[in-house]
Amino acid sequence: VSAETAVPQSAINGPGGDSFAYIPFEQPAVVNGPADVYVCLSYANTNGEVVAGCSGQALPGAAWFFDNQELLWARSLVSPMIRAHLDNSVGFANREHDRSQLDVFPVPCDDRVTIRLPEGALSLELLDAQGRTLSVQALGSSAAMPRTMDLAVEGLPVGTYVALVRTREAVMQARLVVSH
Question: I need a surface site. Which of 14, 61, 150, 180 has the fewest CB within 10 A?
């Protein structure tokens, strides 16, 4: 599973109560190749939320499904699924920057990417689409630490990557797309 998040049941149920209206994701699903993933509902928790999980790359003729009895992901040719397309669009929101968040821009990038670090950032990792660590950089936690840094990506192949930042309180991730 590349990403999963809990969403309110009301966000998933359509007018009839059993159809899918939409499923919002808090984390990007990292895919390698075509940016299509399969989405399914994993389980409902006691707070009335439903956890939606998504697979990696969507392959023709096969879908991922969740076997709730065995708690396993498996492939099926007959399981109904939602096929979601992830694009590399860039959107802008009219809001003040939250200093506790991680930002990566521009997306897509060519030879350099700017990373706006959250307060208290201790390390920065760069992961490829398969989750392999490509680099790790210790950042330190001093108040004088720069809040932004440039990362050279000209040596990376075209593709999708994840910037992972660790603080004392959290691990944050942001997607970056190298497009040369």
Answer: 61
The boundaries of every CATH 2.60.40.2470 domain in the chain are: 103-178
Residue 145 contacts by C-beta under 8 Å, 6 or more apart in sequence? Answer: 117, 121, 139
Structure tokens at 108: 């897509």
Q: How far apart are CA 82 and CA 89, in angstroms?
A: 21
Neighbours of 21 (CB within 10 A): 10
CATH topology of domain 103-178: Immunoglobulin-like (2.60.40)
Task: Report the distance separating Cα 115 and Cα 36, nearest Å.
Answer: 26
CB 170 within 8 A of CB 24: no
Range list of β-strands (E), 47-101 = 49-54, 63-67, 72-76, 82-85
pLDDT at 113: 93
Q: Cis before residue 28, ω within 30 degrees of 0?
A: no
With H, G, I as helix, E, B as strand and everything else as coil, classify residue 161: strand
Backbone angles phi, psi at 55, to 5 degrees: -80, 180
> Over pLDDT 90: what percentage of the chain?
14
